[in-house]
Amino acid sequence: MAAARFALLITPAESTDEERADFSDSFRRIDPGAPALSVGELSTQRGDGIFESIGVVDGHAQEVEAHVQRLAHSAALCELPEPHREQWRQAVAIAAAECGPGEWVIKLILSRGVDHGPAPTAWVTAAPAGDFAAARADGIRVVTLDRGYDSGAAERSPWLLLGAKTLSYAVNMAALREAHRRGADDAIFVTTDGVVLEAPTASLILRFGDRFVTPAPHGGILQGTTQISLFAHLEEQGFTTEYATVPTADLATADQAWLVSSVRLAAPIAAIDDAPLAIDHAFTDGLNAYLLSARD
Question: Considering only CA atoms, which of 93, 17, 13, 9 is closest in space to residue 43?
Answer without folding.
Answer: 9
